[in-house]
Amino acid sequence: MKTLRKVLVPLAILPFKNTVYAQKKDSIPFKVRAFFADKSPQARNFNIDYTFFSPYQSTSYLQSHQLPDNKVKSLQQMRATANIYFIKNKSWLLSTALNYRYISLQMEHPEVIEGSRHGDYHYHSEAVNLTYFSKLFRKTAIYSASFSADGSDQHFERVRGMITASLIIKASPKTKMTLGLAGIIDPSTQIPILPIFTYENKFNNGWVLDVLLPKKLLIRKDVFANGRVSLGTEMDNTSFYIYTYNHTYEFRQADLNSGAIYEHHLGGNFIGTVKAGIRTPFNTRVFNKEETFKNYIWEAKYQPSFYFNIGLSYNPFEKPRRK
Q1: Tell me, what's the pLDDT at 214?
Q2: Degrees (nearest 5) of the Cα angle 68, 73, 79?
Q3: Which long-range contacts (CB under 8 A, 24 or more apart) does 31-37 make?
């Protein structure tokens, strides 16, 4: 639990540590950070949320041999994230990103890879990010390098690296668009190189098309005095480590969450969020930590299920709206 305390203490004190306004609001780094903080609670200074999933059926395979059908009777997750900035000027950003996730899982029958019906899993990751802003083809270019480590409540497990390069193609009051590439330095990754594409377009009727590939595709609109509703699909990932048979395994799963999101300014830069819809899991595998995602020993096929999420985030870039 010492590891968890190291992760949770900075998260707990973060709302009282606001260092954003040391940077000019008309600077490119400030505008880029505000742009992404507006799109995702996990990109804001602080976020905590809880997710409940309805029961669903599952079919699993151990080393290609089908196991008896099973049922996930209960699945709940609690997540806390924080982004802290240390160096901020017109060309450089140095920051750290902290993430903690607690997963409570209850199966109808024990799975061979887990050995029990009920499991409580703790996952954390810590990253140091360095971002550089410059000009390329007379447009703003953003280069970043990230070094991260992750683990459980028992051990640190992996170290990873990532480099990205993006170009702001257009940035007008109505339309914003960026294009780039991300390279992931991790032997266990499924896709080592990913395209980055963001697109935001404001329509005359008040709706906004919000695209952040490969993460999400939404349409959103401001409602009421200080609210915003969004409809569409987001991708999420769940990872944690399993210790069994004197080996360390990693559980890794990707989900598509399709439904509705409502965000509301609560005052003092705090934003409450409610999400609900249908979760469709895919690419659910368990593999030895020393191997790769392709060399898995256990795989599962899960049916879609209903999800409900409630969260609270702190975004210093945006003030409540008054109509």
Answers
A1: 87
A2: 120
A3: 31/171, 32/133, 32/142, 33/85, 33/93, 33/317, 34/317, 34/318, 35/176, 37/315, 37/317, 37/318
Please give the backbone phi and psi of residue 51, each rounded to the nearest 5 degrees, phi first.
Answer: -125, 135
Residue 86: CB atoms within 10 A of its CB come to: 10
Backbone angles phi and psi of 292, in degrees to 5: -115, 170
Within 10 angstroms of residue 295's Cβ, the number of other Cβ atoms is 11
Cα separation of the two ends of the chain: 47
Exposed, middle or buried, 64 (CB in 10 Å: 0-12/13-18/19+)? Answer: exposed
Alpha helix (H) residue ranges in the chain: 2-13, 28-39
What lies within 8 Å, CB to CB, of 230 at 6+ separation is 210, 218, 219, 220, 260, 261, 262, 263
Residues of the chain scoring pLDDT < 70: 1-26, 112-118, 318-323
Q: How many CB atoms lie within 10 A of CB 289?
A: 13
- Burial of 208 by CB count in 10 Å (0-12 exposed, 13-18 middle, 19+ buried)? middle
Cα 291 to its chain centre, rounded Å, is: 24
Closest CA to 11 of 121, 116, 99, 89: 99
Query: What is the share, in percent, of the chain residues with pLDDT greater than 90?
Result: 62
For residue 256, the cross-strand partners are 235, 280
What pLDDT was estimated at residue 27? 74
Give phi and psi for 23, each to the nearest 5.
-110, 140
